[in-house]
Amino acid sequence: MYKNLAAGLASAALFIFPSHAQKSEPLKVGFVYVAPVTEAGWVRQHEEGRQAVQAAFGGRVKTSFVENVAEGPDAERVIRDLAATGHKLIFTPSFGYMEPTLKVARDFPDVKFESITGYKTSANVAAANARYYEGRYLAGIAAGRMTKSHVAGYVAGFPIPEVLQGINAFTLGMRSVNPKAQVKVVWLNAWFDPGKERDAAMTLMDQGADVLSFHTASTAVMAAAQERGKLAVAYHSDMRKVAPDAQIVAVTHQWGEYYSRRTQRVLEGGWKPGNVWGGVKEGMIRVGYFGSKVPQAVQDEVLARQKDIAAGKLKPFAGPIADNEGKAVAAKGQALTDEQILSMNYLVSGVQGKARQ
């Protein structure tokens, strides 16, 4: 009798006080990727950021991702589906996801969105980007020291300010140690198209480039340089596995700390929109992973300049700077402001190409 009574009371307690018997549901965090998840590249770095979030919070969060989502209507559909299925924090790391993210956010005011590489914000949309150009400048120093033909090739996706910043910083870094250097650009009108990326790399090498750089999402340029016995700068990730002989240095993106910090803010109830633009100093950009062909003196020089950027002693866009049509952009002793960098729409002297397709 007493045993049955005790069981009944326990059951009643569970009914009356369900919060003591049930664990709170984990925070669902979603990620949308513009290309497939591969071993290296843009998406790989964001996937490592997602994994860092899952590792940091364990059962308190449940992360998921959707890969190979085209910018535009398809992106809106995927972002909307994540919001509708209970994801309360959604990261959308591609420039073309900015407008779809804002559109979906208006319909889901209780969901937090992080527009990565976007610049527009709202009450529930934050923006974040990295100063990729800082790493590009450092990679340019390495390329300037390693080239023999004084010609570098640059395979680029779209002529948006972020990409133009990278091409220009790379060129300025290269010419800071090699005034003869020239950079040839091929525009692809695509972020991820390994076939086009490879063809562009081959064309640039046929035109005399013995060092390649790129702003696309696959490892195709690195593989092409490896095949032809040329050199290349890895982007987003360390790509020595693909190009062990070709890689001279890698400019890597580090998203784990930022993603984890923003997730923590949601868990605490203290998330606020903002616009973050971090670089070497903040640990969002890192240069290293030198190839075996790079002399120690060059490695030391690049790492020393990286410390200078972190300390604010070196500004990649410090004058004198002129565009490749002869127009002065910054006078000697002047540095471009963030506003000027963010609205960049030209290519600097030393670049062979146009800032538009």
Can you characterise this structure?
The structure is a single chain. With 357 residues, the protein is of the alpha/beta class. Helix content is 41%, strand content 20%. The strands form three sheets. It has a seven-stranded mixed beta sheet, sandwiched between helices. Helix 9 links the parallel strand 8 and strand 9 (231-236). Helix 3 crosses helix 10 (256-268), helix 6 (132-146) runs parallel beside helix 7 (161-177) and helix 8 (194-206) runs parallel beside helix 9. The chain is globular and about 65 Å long. The chain starts with a helix and ends in a 5-residue tail after the last strand.
The succession of helices and strands, N to C, reads HHEHEHEHEEHEHEHEHEEHEEHEEHE
Query: Rough shape?
Result: globular
What's the pLDDT, averaged over the residues?
A: 93
Computed Rg: 24 Å
Sheet with most strands: 7 strands, mixed
| Helix content range | 40-55%
What portion of residues belong to β-strands? 15-25%
Judged by helices, strands and strand pairing, the structural class is alpha/beta
> Could you tell me how far the N terminus lies from the C terminus, measured between alpha carbons in angstroms?
85 Å
Q: Which spans have pLDDT < 50 for at least 5 consecutive residues?
A: 1-21
Number of helical elements: 12
